[in-house]
Design brief:
By secondary structure, the chain is mainly α. Helix content is 88%, strand content 0%. It has 3 helices and no strands. It starts with a helix and ends with a helix.
């Protein structure tokens, strides 16, 4: 349990940041799910639009510190590979 004023404030800050980061992570997952749905739909134009939005959201999460830079880059790379595979087929 937090005893000093500084540690009590730290607990409040951590709770606030956790709430914000959870919302951001959830938002990223939503855009990834929308991309997967567009990919399974088979329409290349819709999938490309969903990819751009998902990429933007992932990179925003990277700048906010929710996702590590390499993790974001890896996920975007895999999404793009899926999009290329779909457009080639």
């Amino acid at each position: 349990m937090a005893n000093t004023p500084g540690s009590k404030k730290a607990v409040r800050k951590i709770a606030r940041r956790t709430e914000i980061n959870t919302a951001r992570r959830s938002r990223v997952r939503t855009f990834l799910r929308k991309f997967d749905e567009a990919l399974s739909g088979g329409d290349a134009a819709v999938a490309k639009d969903a990819f751009v939005k998902a990429q933007s959201e992932l990179m925003r999460a990277v700048t906010k510190g929710v996702v590590h830079k390499n993790t974001g880059a890896r996920k975007v790379s895999r999404l793009h590979a899926q999009l290329r595979k779909m457009s080639a087929a």
